[in-house]
Amino acid sequence: MADAPILKHLNDLIAHAISPGDTVKLVPLTGPSDGSPTSAFFEIWEPRGVQPANSHPDSVEIFIILNGEGEAVSDEHTVSIKSGDVLILPSGSVHHIRNTSETERLYAVTIMANDMGSMKKGFEDLVTSGRTVDFEEPDKAAIFVGLAPIGKVVADPLHGQRHV
């Protein structure tokens, strides 16, 4: 018999800070604890928040920027990031992301391709071993900001507006 799918609701998710004083929250969406070799997180940077420089020897890390602006540093390279960008950091790179806004949070979905290749016990384990922190309603809403239908809105005399 096949394994049943796993369904999680937004209100059941828990935010974590890896270390005291962190200005970045991570909300695990999936990972090895669900039987997945890849982990995914919703990541929230406070205004001017920054991660410490970090590296994952055998994992590619992908950030889908949902809202906000920032700066990503990977080894000697620096790029500006904003809503709609997809940032791919190569395995082994030493990197960090900084929210450049003084007032707004930066939001991303982060994918760790090969969670166990990131460190000895895996990145998901590092995150969930951190302290739990508030996962506020505006942060939850930010996950779905980018999910508006894509395409043109046209008038449909039978059904009102529709997306094409």
UniProtKB/TrEMBL annotation:
Entry-linked PANTHER family: CUPIN TYPE-2 DOMAIN-CONTAINING PROTEIN, OXALATE-BINDING PROTEIN
Annotated organism of origin: Arthrobacter ramosus
Pfam families: Cupin_2 (PF07883)
Name of the featured protein: Cupin domain-containing protein
Keyword entries, A-Z: Metal-binding
Keyword field contains Metal-binding: yes
Record lineage: Bacteria, Bacillati, Actinomycetota, Actinomycetes, Micrococcales
Hydrolase as UniProt keyword: no
Domain (Cupin type-2): residue spans on this chain: 43-106
Superkingdom per UniProt: Bacteria
InterPro entries: Cupin_2, GPI/OXD, RmlC-like_jellyroll, RmlC_Cupin_sf
